[in-house]
Amino acid sequence: MHSKRPLFWRIYPSHLFIAFLCLAASVWLAVTTLRDSYVEQRVGELRALGRLLEIQLQPLLHPPDPRGIDRLCKVAGARVGTRITIVLPDGRVVGDSEEDPQRMDNHRDRPEVRQAFLAGEGRSTRFSRTVRKRMLYLGIRAGLPEREPAILRLSVPMTGLEQALEIVEKKIVVWGFLIALAAGLSSLLLARRLSRPIQELKRAADRLKQGDLSLRPPMSRITEVDALAETMHRMGQDLHRRIETVTLQRNEIESVLSSMVEGVLAVDTGERVIRMNEAAGKMLQCDPRRVQGRGIEEAIRNPGLQRFVKKALSAGNVTAEEDIVLSAGEERFVTCHGSALRDGEGRQTGALVVLNDVTRLRKLEKIRRDFVANVSHEIKTPITAVKGFLETLSDGAMKSPAEAARFLAIMEKHVLRLEAIVEDLLCLSRIEQEEERGGILRSTVPLEPILHAAVQLCEAGAAAKGIHFQISCPKDLTARLNPPLLEQAVVNLLENAVKYSHPGNPVGLTAERSGGEIVIRVRDQGPGIDPAHHDRLFERFYRVDKARSRQEGGTGLGLSIVKHIVQAHGGRVTVQSAPGKGSAFTLHLPA
Which of 44, 85, 445, 489 has its CA 20 to 30 A from that of 35? Predict the structure, then answer.
């Protein structure tokens, strides 16, 4: 539990802390900026000097001339007042302006030398054991590009910078202390000035709490405090008047807001709209703000919903519930729940209607019914045929070998068709289960082998009709996918293309990367499909020409399997076709 403190002790320490924090930040920023500025200035000077020395050094490096290099370092170092060191690739020092190179350690491990060998230039600031000083080092890779490089190292002492920083730090600390002291005094005065009138307001608020609503709090010379005092005075005058209004509105607002997840419509006893949320406005195709205050006949153009609202108003304590169809462009199904609105005294003030959009649920129910009916029909047809031929064989057809063989061949055809339907249904079920479990397994693989494998599976059927495949796929085209599932989708499209193509016509299979996605297209020169069928092509058991589809041996599930496979990959499938112009089915997969 936090301890309570007076306002004075909340304002004054915080202001004092901020003042000292600003002082510390200013000192740190000034010292850091000065140090960085000095170092960058010196590095720039050393870099310029190094480039001039590199020109004179290159003739002495290939092959290395230790005496000449050391002589150049000592002469140049004496003239410019900078220590100059030359380090060979093996770390051996061959020249130094202040020391005997032969007595110096191997410099291969020095930070600035390592950086220079790697990046062409390196720097460091550290204590030099050789000259017993803290130094700024700059290493530059020198030599001809085609030869083994050496490192030209230049260094200057950091003594000047440290002395300058010491002087600046002392000045900043002194002035900062004076500023902090002044800030502390001003904070003390400000805290006392603010806390005194607030204490007076507290005493006035205590009297308001005790019921003295006519009290006028004392005024001060602070604008904000005076505004607060005036507000407290008006609050006392308005408080009594607002109590009754708030009590009446609270039940209405809470009832409406408690159901904001669904569409909410509130009406009064005069059948006028008093509240409608955005969800209800979208369902009823109207602006909630514009219909507020209007009668339900004017605000709601749906007769069924109008009757339901009136029923909810007259139902009293009984909750009414009903399904209503809204026809606003697209047919929508809404479940309505209605109950009476009452005030704090139990009097009915209107009715509350909650609208739940169940359009998707109704569509799913219809799809389920259609699917069950289609499956029953598709399975019943081959079973009926097999049963009929079995009865024929039992009635004596077995005595005729020719007739028996013909009947058995027909029965085998129907059994194979029944098996194909079951296999396709199981395939759809497996894909849906994998999606529900979190998605299919995918890996990044080349597309060309998958497309060729699909073509090989369809070549026998294509050859029987004199159809050949035209494949176009870049060898380096890859995608993240499930190879067996994609192969099955392509096989289904190729089989359809072969099935409906005229004998001798080619079937095209292309794959490319386009617009941030992988596009796989199967194109045939068959009879084409009327655009009126395009939206339903990928439904289960939907056929454009049912008689021909069954004659060709199709199950009516191939394109539905294709759609589910592509959707499992996060893609989509499209069709372009017209009567007499062939068809093109395109898979759009994420790249």
Answer: 85
List Cβ<8 Å contacts ≥24 apart for 437-443. 439/568, 440/482, 440/485, 440/568, 440/569, 441/482, 442/480, 442/481, 442/482, 442/569, 443/480, 443/481, 443/482, 443/483
Q: What is the CA radius of gyration of the chain?
A: 45
Which positions of the chain have pLDDT values less than 50?
1, 547-549
The CATH architecture one would assign to domain 258-353 is 2-Layer Sandwich (3.30)
Task: Kindly tell me the sign of the dihedral angle through the C-alpha atoms of 475, 480, 482, 487.
Answer: negative
Question: Which helix (DSSP H) or strand (DSSP E) does residue 177 occupy?
Answer: helix 159-209
Options 1.20.140.160, 1.10.287.130, 3.40.50.620, 3.40.109.10; CATH of 363-432: 1.10.287.130
* Residue 76 near residue 84 (C-beta atoms within 8 A): yes
Is the fold of 258-353 the same as that of 363-432?
no
- Dump pLDDT digits (tens) for 378-429: 667 677 777 777 777 777 777 777 777 877 777 776 676 666 667 766 666 6
Q: Residue 552 has what pLDDT?
A: 52
| CA-wise closest residue to 471 among 431, 425, 509, 526 | 509
Structure tokens at 73: 């370092």
Name the residue among 519, 522, 529 with its Cα closest to residue 498.
522
| Alpha carbon distance 198, 345 (integer Å) | 41
The pLDDT assigned to 373 comes to 65
DSSP 358: -
pLDDT reported for residue 419: 67
Supply the DSSP symbol for 399. G
Rounded Cα distance between 97 and 81, Å, is 10
Joined together, the tokens standing for residue 167 give 């002087």
Amino acid at 46: L
- Bridge-based pairing state of the strands 507-514 and 121-128: unpaired
What is 440-590's CATH superfamily? Histidine kinase-like ATPase, C-terminal domain (3.30.565.10)
CATH class of 10-163: alpha beta
What pLDDT sits at residue 269? 87
The answer to whether 181 touches 188, Cβ cutoff 8 Å, is no
Query: What integer pLDDT is reported at residue 162 of this predicted model?
Result: 72
Phi and psi, residue 497, nearest 5°: -65, -45
CA contacts within 13 A on the Cβ side of 458? 29
496 closest CA partner among 443, 444, 541, 549? 549
**How far is Cα 494 from Cα 491, in angstroms, rounded to an integer?**
5
Cα 258 to chain centroid, rounded: 31
Sequence ranges of the domains in the chain? 10-163, 258-353, 363-432, 440-590
pLDDT score at 327: 64
Among residues 262, 271, 310, the alpha carbon closest in space to that of 293 is found at: 271
